[in-house]
UniProtKB/TrEMBL annotation:
Biased composition (Polar residues): 1-22, 384-395
Protein's recorded name: CCHC-type domain-containing protein
Region annotation (Disordered) ranges: 1-73, 338-395
Organism: Rhipicephalus microplus
């Protein structure tokens, strides 16, 4: 009888990619913040109550920071303090997580893999740094920001805020011409505080009044809660609203309606919240596009209009109309046969804010904070320099 001997060599175990914890996809709204015009009618057109989630609408990266369409609520000018508290807490947690990062004891230095990225054809500006504090600047007095160069606007703002050259490091000044506003992003808290206190801007020989406030954090989403008492103070909403597992960053009533706009931490809106223990339904907030009642352009309210002295017919959109001019409904936005302020205008359709870049940034941050994992065979290779070989017995 012939004896056959078979031996096999076991190769090193391939290192398996370690898994990462995916950030929760969380729906909400920027941009955000102090907002809802109290003079708005009892039925707020910016409110959407839908039971199905709409697909995300792609927006330019430069406009990623979501902006609430119901801005200019002067009764809640102190909400910027909420964002300051939230930013400080998030920055402290982030620094603590980096400090607790364990060292790699496998003997193999960890180096992130270099990947070759395809050249993007998108010419939009990149998104703001995730953990920066963002300040929104809105002009008054007929100031049109895009009529000045960006360096002129930035230099006037830095001078008024008293910022030094060192303070201006890593600061980003970005203009949004359609909305007639500017966004300033900075990683330094004292710089954000100085910008928040600016109330006027000197350009040329004129001084223009401005409004500044803190934007909502990027890692947040807004929802609407109907069924509340109109006029409920923001402090009461924040203290009494409860969502297990989700932190409420800020809440306020939307004008004179019975609907509250609530900002949640994270990228998910809970289905239900509790107010004084009573369970209420919560829906993602999908704002409409703003329409100015003065110039009938999209993107801003009348109190921030860059052309407040222009007279336009609200029905046909004619400039400087005569008292007896022929008036046929015409939309200046889509050229449709309806007034520009019509809620059914396709240019004013509700859109779900795009938070895809925030999820991507959070996943990348989690990968950087987690230590690399190596298999047992890789560790043996690092110490012995050769692979283990096992031989099966005679068949």
């Amino acid at each position: 009888m012939e004896h056959l001997t078979a031996s096999t060599t076991v190769s090193n175990e391939h290192e398996t990619p370690w898994s990462t914890a995916n950030a929760d996809a969380r729906p909400s709204v920027a941009a955000q913040t102090p907002e809802a015009n109290t003079a708005r009618p009892a039925t707020d057109p910016a409110v959407s109550i839908s039971f199905s989630q709409q697909p995300e609408v792609d927006t330019p990266p430069g406009e990623r920071m979501e902006e609430d369409t119901t801005l200019c609520d002067n009764t809640d000018n102190d909400v910027g303090g909420w964002w300051k508290t939230v930013q400080h807490r998030r920055r402290a947690r982030h620094m603590h997580a980096e400090a607790q990062l364990p060292e790699d004891t496998s003997g193999i230095p960890y180096a992130p893999q270099q990947t070759t990225r395809k050249r993007s054809l998108n010419q939009n500006p990149p998104p703001f740094p995730l953990h920066d504090e963002k300040i929104i600047l809105r002009p008054h007095g007929g100031l049109r920001l895009d009529s000045w160069t960006r360096p002129e606007l930035a230099n006037a703002l830095w001078s008024t805020a008293g910022l030094s050259t060192k303070d201006r490091q890593n600061i980003i000044f970005r203009l949004r011409p359609q909305q007639n506003l500017a966004v300033i992003s900075t990683p330094k808290s004292h710089v954000a505080d100085a910008l928040y206190k600016v109330r006027e801007l000197r350009l040329g020989q004129l001084v223009y009044p401005i409004t500044t406030y803190f934007a909502a954090p990027e890692n947040s989403w807004k929802g609407i809660v109907p069924g509340l008492v109109p006029g409920t103070p923001s402090s009461t909403l924040v203290d009494e609203l409860l969502t297990p597992g989700t932190q409420i960053l800020q809440a306020r009533m939307m004008g004179q309606t019975n609907i509250a706009l609530v900002t949640f931490e994270g990228l998910k809106v809970p289905r239900y919240v509790r107010f004084y223990g009573a369970e209420l339904r919560c829906y993602p907030h999908r704002p409409r596009q703003l329409v100015c009642k003065r110039c009938h352009r999209l993107g801003h309210w009348a109190d921030h209009c860059p052309t407040p002295h222009v007279l336009i017919c609200a029905t046909c959109g004619t400039d400087n109309p005569a008292p007896s001019h022929p008036c046929t409904p015409h939309c200046r936005s889509c050229d449709g046969s309806h007034p520009t302020s019509d809620l059914n205008c396709p240019r004013r359709s509700r859109q779900t804010p795009n938070k895809a870049w925030v999820r991507k940034a959070l996943k990348k941050e989690q990968r950087e904070l987690q230590p690399p994992r190596t298999s047992t065979a890789s560790k043996d290779m690092a110490t012995t320099g050769h692979s283990q070989v096992s031989t099966q017995g005679t068949l």
